[in-house]
Amino acid sequence: MKLFSRRTPLRASKIDIKPPEPDENRSGLAIVAIVKNEANYIEDWIKFHAFAGITDFIIYDNASTDGTAKILRQFASLNITIIPWNMNLSSAKPKMILPRQILAYCHAVCTFGSNFKWMGFIDVDEFLVPKDSNSIPDLLQKIGPFENLSLPWRMFGHNQHEAQPTEPVPFAYTMAAQNQLGPLLNFKCIVDPCTVTQVSTHKFRTKKLNNQTQNTQGKIVSNKARTGSFVTNEHIQLNHYYLRSKSEMLTKMAGSAVSGTHPDQRKNAIETKAQLIEQDPLRDQSALLFLERVGVTSVEDFHKAAV
User: Fold this and answer.
1) How far apart are alpha carbons 12 and 259 in whole angstroms?
2) 0.90 cut: is pTM over it?
């Protein structure tokens, strides 16, 4: 079939960019996320990362109607940039959808990247957990100079919650899948934005590494070879609170994905992951252990702590 005769549009899975020139005073880590109606969880996510030493957030608001942006504006001590991002773009020839999430990432790198040493690209159900330090930026400094760091998902289940719990996410969800492989294995990245030449959701290309990436132990492989011994949770663990409660999972299955995945395909993927996560989960208290180290030992501490 010829490319231009397709009835179903293609979807761009990656977009090439020209990396920004670094500012001579650039420093620190900015977290980039695209959100839609995350009022129930955005406070937990922001506070946790603030406890971990992150002060800069670039949030692309995909037409939220639940007050997500209002909650974000309450964190006056943090540098939170909120960008309206209700975009539905496609090219005419060839007919191709340009995913809003990848476009948001491209915009973040090109517009803000010159100011930062690193940019991390995660979702609001993903938490960066320091394993042997109280600061994510300090850990990145210890890992050493890098262009492209891949962090594997650590997938968390329902924790027997039928409906959304009242506790903050790290307290409510402590049971994770035993394995990080198959459908449960994917990655999010922290990159040097001034080296990025190609952007995708789960992988990047950079100037020197090209289509290679490294883990927190310094091992370098191609993006396609991120399996086996490359998968490590040392230094930084990426907790993916994927299922949340059972009722929230059902709502998720009935909704649409920011990636534009077909609803039936998305529903099947969620069900498959849920079965694997819930087969025989293990207790994982990495997030709680970190919070204890910074003096947050209870739900009350978490709610009262100022950031």
Assistant:
1) 10
2) yes
